[in-house]
Amino acid sequence: MDYTKEYQQKLMTPAEAVKLVKDGDWVDYSQVCTFPIELDNALGDRAGELKDVKVRHAISMRPVQVVEKDPNQESFTYNLWHCSGLDRKYVDAGRAYYEPMLFRHCGPYYTKGYAEVDVAMITVAPMDRFGNFNFGLTNCAQQEMLDRAKIIIVEVNESMPVIFGKTNDHIHISQVDAIVECSQPIAVTPPSAPATAEDIAIANHIFPYLEDEITLQLGIGGMPDTLGNLIAESDLKDLGMHTELLSNAYLKLYETGKINDRKKAIDRGKGVFGICNGTRELYDFLHMNSNVLTAPMSYINDPAVIKQHHKFVSINSCINMDLYGQIGSESSGIRHISGTGGQLDFATGAFECPGGKSFLTMKSFRKDKQGNLHSNILPKFTDGSIITTPRTSAPFMVTEQGIANLTGKTTWERAEGIISIAHPDFREDLIKAAEEQKIWRKSNKR
Length: 446
What we know:
The protein is α/β, with parallel strands linked by helices. It has two domains: 11-182, 3-Layer(aba) Sandwich (Glutaconate Coenzyme A-transferase), CATH 3.40.1080; 197-436, Acetyl-CoA hydrolase/transferase C-terminal domain (Glutaconate Coenzyme A-transferase). It contains 16 helices and 24 strands. The chain has an eight-stranded mixed sheet, sandwiched between helices. The longest helix is centred in the middle third of the chain and has 11 residues, at 222-232.
């Protein structure tokens, strides 16, 4: 069947398509690379005309025009499931708002009716001969969001790779209300900045815990890239991938053959991910690659799925922690930084997996603008910082100073282990705090 005529009938300019948005609507851009460049620009042009339009997205990778063109929020309110560095600036300025979630529950928020969607606007790959638009780099909760939407507008972009999915990887033209076309390339994330001394130290602390045939979940940034390089140059073999976010760190592992997914306990022969942002080289690697699949976060991040793997290893970052083993990864005090994401999902799933391990990493210190050092390990949280992983789920904690396994430990064992990976300049003060908090045993090592 030829769908060309239907395509032409539904094809509009971005300005025409955004006329479908009405006052009071919830507009959903889905997540990361699905961001609709031309539609966002055209919707932003309606600033001052529309009233009380709520826009939802996650991890913005380019300036958002409904924010930029409406600085006083007269028309639009921008809401985020998870924050990028750009989003953090918007939140700091009071021009965007975080929407707390667990990544594995993101899809059910839509299906259970907790997240409203009047108009969905998503970037897709060009239509195939069967009338399908592939979702490309974002699976996540996209199908659940589209099922909830009253109106669906797709923005066709030639630079979106076609990536096969376990499920929910495309939408048919018959389900689409409007089509626009975009010639601008989708956003890329450049390679990470050179690794710091702390990144290298943390990666070296984790590496001895890795072994053949593990299934790996890595976060994003200098440390995961450093660890990826260590693995690529090692004798490790037959690794697998099961990750919420596919980042640049994985590309070298596939290219060197370290990851081949052949020994995975489930999804054997297939690397599986939920969302992706990275370099153009990574996108080109994924295009029409039958070795890699996308899947919804309700699958990727489900601890019941994660624990079915053999020797699952999860590695993520955090911002700070206290002497009880409570871990913060979302805010510094009341200043919002990123989001909950799937940290607790993977810490839970990895613990329940045979041979599984979960690592949370951070620098033991931070520097302020005057160059003064501050400890990222606190006696207790009192400044409004959000707890992302409760102490009952605290896994292996890693700083440049070493590793502390907190699983199953008493309060005094935790305090001793946590202080051992604190920056040396702060250890005595932390010991005094632990004594005052009655969690320091008299015979603990100093």
